[in-house]
Amino acid sequence: MFGALVALAMIVAVIGRDRLRGGAEAPRYRTAEVTRGDLLLSVSASGTVEAVALVEVKSRATGQVRSVFVDEGTPVRIGQVLVEIDDPDARAAVENARGAVVAAQARLAQAEASVAVTRSSTTTALRQAEANVAAARARLAQTQTGRPEEIAQAEESVRQARASEALARQNLERQEQLFKEGFVARSALDQARSQYEVAASQLTAAESRLTQVRAGGSAQDVQIATAQLDQAEAQLADARNGTLQVRLRMEDAAAVRAQLAQATSALRQAQERQAESRITAPIDGVVVKRSVAVGQSVIGSAAGGTPVLTLAQMTPVRVKVYVDESDISRVTAQAQIEVTADALSGVMLRGRVVGMAPQPIVEQNVTKYPVTIEVEDRDRVLRLGMTVDAEFVLARRTGVLLVPQEAVRGQESKAVFVVENGALKPRVVQTGLSDGRLVEVLSGLREGELIYLGTARQNGTTPAAPGGNPFQPRLQPRR
Q1: Is the separation of the CB atoms in 403 and 32 below 8 Å?
Q2: Which pLDDT does position 79 carry in this prediction?
């Protein structure tokens, strides 16, 4: 504070000396009023609106341009059809491939129907052949050994015949005894003998039948039954060979199915090639260059042929500004940024730093660093290539007391001259932020007070003002 007062005293002495000089021009005081306003300390830079990405859209199809659906400046969405190419070769390839698919589908349907019919007939024939073999084997067994029921019946006939023969024999023996004793006539004896002979004959016949039944059929019958079994087994073998036919039909169907898959793949490839004749937007963006017109011939290739359009990705909106090397250390990723454009009067957009190039550029011996800013441009008012100005806000004061920088005296301690009743009164003040032109006054002054700036001769000359802040910030006066 002492230093500030000494400086003020020296200034007062100089002023008094000027007044006492005889014949000298009377000095005029330059003064200013203590005002209240806003103070902004910032770094200024200029640049242009740039695209996030520029994409050159090329044709993969060969032919003539049939339609162009967009023009320069048209906003587009990803997948939107931009240009249509007339590619007759691709169209013909699709038709041919589609015909091949239809033909393969018809062949497959026929092959699958053949499999179904063959499987059904083979199954029926196999079951019938198996039944025929079983029946032939049963007949052969019966022919060779006789049927159980016939054997049982023959055995029963033998038992009955033996019983009848025994009864007839007993009756004959009794009649013979009675005849010897003279109790019966010969006719009774003859009748008993005749009955015995009949019973004996029936027993012999029954025993012969039993022996025959047990022995089976004749050799001819066995031969016939064997031949029938051989025939049935041959038919069964043929029926089993029918399952091989089913497998062959299934293999044919599988081959046709593979042909259908190949034809379908060829159709898909042809359709993909034909789809290349409809050129779509690979990104969301805006058309910045149109390179073809309707009727123009284009050449396509797998790597991309004739350029048709150039798209700019404008989301998010970005600008690139160039900051002087003396200011770049002040710019941080957290800085508040205000973006304006001469073409957009009254429009101020906010942004944030998203990139700071480590390598500077030098133009006309001036070194600057590129800084990329992402701008909140909801209304999409910024256009590609538009010139913009960016203010990197370093500090801001709102509604504070302000005085001109040249009014403040001293280095460590600060003081000003206040004009009171036509006289200059020194006053110590506490200052804050300075933009090189105005100084924030924290204490020591009141709004509206008049302060001394310097003297001006009548010839209009004015002492040089102190040097300004190298950042060249601006004052936003309070209204």
Answers
A1: yes
A2: 94
Residue 390 lies inside a defined structural domain of this protein: yes
- The answer to whether residue 259 sits within a structural domain is no
Q: How far is CA 435 from the centre of its chain?
A: 54
Identify the domain containing residue 307 by its residue range: 53-86+278-313
Cis before residue 316, ω within 30 degrees of 0?
A: yes
Q: The tokens 């409809």 sit on which residue?
A: 278
Residue 156 in any domain: the answer is yes
- Rounded Cα distance between 350 and 346, Å, is 13
- Judge if 6 and 130 occupy the same domain: no
pLDDT of res. 469 = 35
CA pair distance 51, 287, nearest whole angstrom:
11
Q: What CATH number is given to the structural domain containing 470?
A: 2.40.30.170
Residue 306 CA to its chain's centroid (Å) = 29
Hey, which residues does 338 pair with through a beta bridge?
A: 350, 391
CA 21 to chain centroid, in Å, comes to 91
Residue 432 CA, chain-centre distance (Å), reads: 57
| pLDDT at site 82 | 94
Q: 188 and 318 share a domain?
A: no
**pLDDT score recorded for residue 112:** 84
Q: Tell me, what amino acid is at 257?
A: R
**H or E element, residue 469:** none
Q: Note whether residue 271 is domain-resident.
A: no
The region, left, alpha or beta by phi > 0 then psi within -120 to 50, assigned to residue 476 is beta
Give the DSSP letter string of 247-267.
HHHHHHHHHHHHHHHHHHHHH
Q: How far apart are CA 439 and CA 403, in angstroms?
A: 5
How many residues does the structure list for the chain? 479
Report pLDDT digits (tens) over 364-375.
Answer: 999 999 999 999
Low-confidence ranges of the chain (pLDDT < 70): 1-27, 125, 129, 139-140, 142-147, 213-222, 225, 236, 239-242, 302-303, 456-479
pLDDT tens digits, one per residue of 267-311: 898 888 877 888 999 999 999 999 999 999 998 876 678 999 999
For the record, the structure tokens of 152 come out as: 């049982």
CA distances from residue 242 to 108, 111, 234 in whole angstroms, order as listed: 21, 16, 13
The domain that holds 181 is classified in CATH as 1.10.287.470
Overall number of domains in the chain: 3
- Indicate if 354 and 231 belong to the same structural domain: no
